[in-house]
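Workshop exercise sheet. Pairs work together: one partner reads the sequence aloud, the other fills in the structure field after running the prediction. Swap roles for the next sheet.
Pair: D.N. / O.F.
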Amino acid sequence: MAYTNIYDLAMEQQAYEEAMEQQAYEEAMEQQAYEEAMEQQAYEEAMEQQAYEEAMEQQAYEEAMEQQAYEEAMEQQAYEEAMEQQAYEEAMEQQAYEEAMEQQAHEEDDDMINLYNMLMIEDGEPVYLSDGVWLYPNGRMVDLKNSN
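Structure field:
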């Protein structure tokens, strides 16, 4: 019987050792699964961070493009306003020139009318100047000799 007890004791020891090995194996597997889960979580967090940074870069790019478009629109508006101002100033210069020419023509007409008034013999009748040139009461001169 002693042999049976030793045999039983050896079997029991072997069963205990196998149970301890199984437990150690299971704990190692749990530890490995935990570490893999932690690695997966770290990977997913890194991917989320990368996606966030890319989204921020995209947003910054879009804001920069909007700012550039705004600045270009402001430059275009300023250019158009400058062109309108230039056109206005040119129109004002043209108007001033035309008014000056009209004033000058009016003054010349006045001079010719004054000349007519000094030379006239009968009011309303043209005055003969010379070489076929006649001066009319409105200050207009007509060259009858060269008009044919």
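Discussion prompt: The mean pLDDT is 91. What would you look at next?
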